[in-house]
Amino acid sequence: MSELYQSAFNYATEFLGYANDSPIQVGDEAREGLKHLDIALPCAGTAALTVIDELNQWFSPATMKMGSPRFFGFVIGGSYPVSVASNWLGTAWDQNTGLEKTTPAAAMLEKVSARWMLNILGLPKESATAFVTGATVANFTALAAARNQVFKQAGWDVESDGLIGAPEVQIIISEDSHPTVYKSLGMLGFGRNRVTKAVVDEQGRIDMTQFPQIEDNAIIITQAGNINSGAFDPIGEISKLAESKKAWVHVDGAFGLWAQASPEYKHLSKGIELADSWATDAHKWLNVPYDSGLAFVKNKHALKAAMAITASYLPSENAERNPSDYTPELSRRARGIDVYAVLRYLGTDGVAELIERCCACAKRFGELFIAAGYEVMNEVVLNQVVVCFGSEEVNLKIMDVIQKEGTTWIGQTMWHGRLAARISVSNWQTDFAAVDESFEVINKVARQVLAS
Ligand SMILES: Cc1ncc(COP(=O)(O)O)c(C=O)c1O
Question: Does domain 85-342 have CATH number 3.40.640.10?
Fold first, then answer.
């Protein structure tokens, strides 16, 4: 066995050693090579060492180097080495993280990580935390708690009686919400279209002068960190408005919630602690490996009512915190390990430094683009930059050439009805040198395309 593990370790460390210096985008040859893995399953097995050799040979070269300090597509982040290492250990430990009684270490680390997270994000201490796969499921989980509570207030037990014949619920959602929030609404039976949209301003923030009338039994879904501009809805103001109607306020803070960890950027999310639930990702800005998202719910009972299960064979009596009481899954990976490892490694100062460095890098991008005469379409308040080089055709051409060149990677977006390039800075390795190196390539390509 040790030869097998050693071989996987060698391949993994070799990959991590060259990944930063390799072209980011997957080349045609590497894509072509993947066909060696696409075979009919033979009757006879294959030696484990050979399986690992083959995976390394064909998969490694075909990886998009998303962990590169110069990868700015999506808000993705990389993985701190400490969390790659903790993830390996977590796999070796292979704990089925459902119950405290059977996996006490995994349950305990979740409890501690949850406490640290609430502290670092400045959220109410009494909130329950769910360790889920990502922000999509974190939104789903938190909104399931919202559904439970809002129907309970209306005298309806939605967990037992479902939605058929249930009282009306109003869902108010920012018109610039992430598509995965609509997906969560669909999965919860609310429907993706039965929503009241809150109008946003030019930065994608909910415009309070046009905020819809809040009805009885309402759930209001806000955003901390617009996916294009990085702007924040006025969550404190909305939460105060929601109080009189006992409406539930949820925050999709997939990446923006992390502003709370920085003394310099905390003002952006002012009043966020007044909401009822929050969703974020650890696999984005905290830079832990996939998959790792977190849902926080102030009303612990609402979350447990929506998520907990009981079965005669599950030993849950006297447990202080059974992880599965808070998540859609019963059996799952011990996600708290990697969150614990990175937080322990960075401390609160280290997390603040990470957030502030990424935001400073985004600001630098913005300044470099403006100085070079390009149009920066958003106020660069956080880690997001939307830049437009010219017509749709020009933008697409520039992005295509940049991606093929391989030094850096930026993706496309639609902002105010125009196609533009979007830069998201969230990698633990990104610094001014990475920004300058990337900008040099982007500028050179843009000049060439514009001149052609
Ligand atoms: C604002 C926002 N919400 C939700 C999501 C979904 O997150 P995940 O892909 O981790 O499920 C994203 C992902 O980019 C996001 O930016």
Answer: yes
